[in-house]
Structure formats: C-alpha cells, structure tokens
From TrEMBL:
The keyword DNA-binding applies. GO terms for molecular function: DNA binding. It holds the Pfam family KfrA_N. Residues 83-184 form a coiled coil. InterPro entries: KfrA_DNA-bd_N. The keyword Coiled coil applies. Residues 8-122 form the KfrA N-terminal DNA-binding domain. This is Replication region DNA-binding N-term. Keywords: Coiled coil, DNA-binding. It comes from the Bacteria.
Length: 189
C-alpha cells in the first residue's frame, strides 16, 4: 500500500483558488477531492485560507485627521513621560554609582594607608632581624672563642694535673728517700 504525500498549505491554497475561479463552492470535501488528505488536516488549512481571504477583502479605513493628531499628541505625551522616567532612573543610577565609586576610593585610600604602615613595619622588622642576626653571629663567634679558650684552659689544667701528680709522686719518693736517709743517719750515730 502506497502512502499518499502529505498535503501542504500551498496545495490547499491552490485548490481553493481553483474552485473559487471556477465559481464552485470552496468546501473541505471539494478541496480533498483535488489534493487528497484527511478532513481534519485539510479543514484546518481551508480555514487558514479563508482567514487570509478575509484579510485581503477588508477595506482600508482612513483615519480622520483629528484622530491621527490626537494619536500623535498622545504618543508624544507618553514618550515624554517615558523619557522623564528614564532620565530619573539614569540620574538615580548615576548618583548611586558615584556614591559607590567614592566609597570605593575611600576604602582604597584606607587600604593604601594600611599597606604603607605595614610596609614601614616590615622594614623595621627587617632591620631588627638584621641587627639580631648580626648580634647572633657575634655571640656565636664569642662562644666559639670562649670554647677555644675553655679547651685551652682544660688542656693546661690537665697538664698541670699531670704535673701535680708527678710532683706528688716525686715528693713521695723524696720523702721516702729522706726517711731512709734519716734512718740510716740515726743508725750511724
């Protein structure tokens, strides 16, 4: 079974024109006989064609000059009111924008002052840190010197302890010899 091609508005319009020129009644059934299609589809298209025909047939009405002038005047009044409202809104937005801009400038100025203060404090802190690092370096150097001196003193003390020990041993020997000499000299007398 072959499907019939879809009916288009152009085909229905052409069929309606053909029927009208032939002096026949433009009905949905008469159009379907020419174009094919369903009653609901073609019916809606015929209705559209009739509406277009009525628009074409409607006579143009000339407006009286007084109505035209009144329309122009009303349009001018409406335009003036709209322009006035728009200008008021523009001015309000401009004022709000200027206020916001001034507020932003003040905040920016405050921030810049705060940044300048922080930069000054940072510079002071850098100088203090440099000074502290210099003192730390000097202290470390002094500590190193003191450690060297301490080691030197400890070495000398160890040497003296060794000498003292040797002297004690020598003293004990001498004392023992002296006692021995004294005993020998007593025995001889």
């Amino acid at each position: 079974m072959e499907r019939k091609p879809k009916v288009t508005q152009q085909a229905v319009d052409a069929a309606c024109e053909e029927l009208q020129q032939a002096g026949k009644n433009v009905s949905v059934n008469a159009v379907i006989a020419i174009t094919g299609g369903s009653f609901s589809t073609v019916g809606a298209m015929v209705k559209t064609w009739r509406a277009e025909q009525q628009k074409k047939a409607a006579p143009a009405i000339d407006m009286p000059e007084s109505i035209t002038n009144a329309m122009y005047q009303a349009t001018a009044v409406v335009w003036e009111a709209a322009a006035s409202l728009a200008n008021e809104r523009i001015e309000r937005v401009r004022t709000e924008a200027q206020d916001a801009l001034e507020k932003s400038r003040l905040e920016s100025s405050e921030y810049m002052d705060a940044i300048a203060n922080l930069e000054q404090q940072l510079e002071k802190n850098r100088k203090s840190l440099a000074s502290a690092e210099k003192r730390l370096s000097m202290t470390a150097s002094e500590i190193a010197q003191l450690n060297t001196h301490k080691i030197s003193l400890e070495t000398r003390l160890a040497d003296r302890d060794s000498e003292l020990k040797q002297l004690r041993e020598d003293y004990k020997k001498l004392q023992a010899e002296l006692i021995a000499i004294a005993k020998t000299g007593k025995d001889k007398h």
